[in-house]
Amino acid sequence: xxxxxxxxxxxxxxxxxxxxxxxxxxxxxxxxxxxxxxxxxxxxxxxxxxxxxxxxxxxxxxxxxxxxxxxxxxxxxxxxxxxxxxxxxxxxxxxxxxxxxxxxxxxxxxxxxxxxxxxxxxxxxxxxxxxxxxxxxxxxxxxxxxxxxxxxxxxxxxxxxxxxxxxxxxxxxxxxxxxxxxxxxxxxxxxxxxxxxxxxxxxxxxxxxxxxxxxxxxxxxxxx
Length: 224
Known about the structure:
Largest sheet: 5 strands, mixed
Shape: globular
CATH superfamily of one domain: P-loop containing nucleotide triphosphate hydrolases
Radius of gyration: 18 Å
Low-confidence stretches: 1-10, 219-224
Distance between the termini: 34 Å
Structural class: alpha/beta
Number of strands: 10
CATH architecture of one domain: 3-Layer(aba) Sandwich
CATH class of one domain: Alpha Beta
Strand content: 15-25%
Mean pLDDT: 87
Number of helices: 10
């Protein structure tokens, strides 16, 4: 487990929305619904050494690379964070995230709690959301119903889920995915609110903030 040490960029207009969840909680489906509802959001595509699942495309869901290539990129410092999860490596491109935020693009990133903690140390104004199942029984049923894993793998995922749920307090928001439509509305609302924060709005509209005398508030108002 490793993370690069980089300065945050207070003048950047883009937001980083980090979505965390145990496997089977519905994170990917909720993020897809968010991206469909907000076309100006962009999904961060991570690198992974795991094999593609049915329906996944290289460069869309993940960049699928082998372990040797992953190690070469890791040694070059290309990943802002990387992790070994469920027997495979995952990594997030440091340069791509920085470039997109600097351009004012809002990035959505699906990741585990360990990676989220690493990213928050670099991007201190990132917004973190934890997607929780309504119960462990429902989570197990969802993992079983999707038909992608053996019974042994499901047991490992359930054990990992208990560990991940214990770290939910590291996120700013929690969405309980009991009813998909309601959970989707909650995630969209959080993404919209992230764009309206002072730092992002000031970076997008510097002339207006200067004209209205609002740009100075960030340094003088203790509640800003």
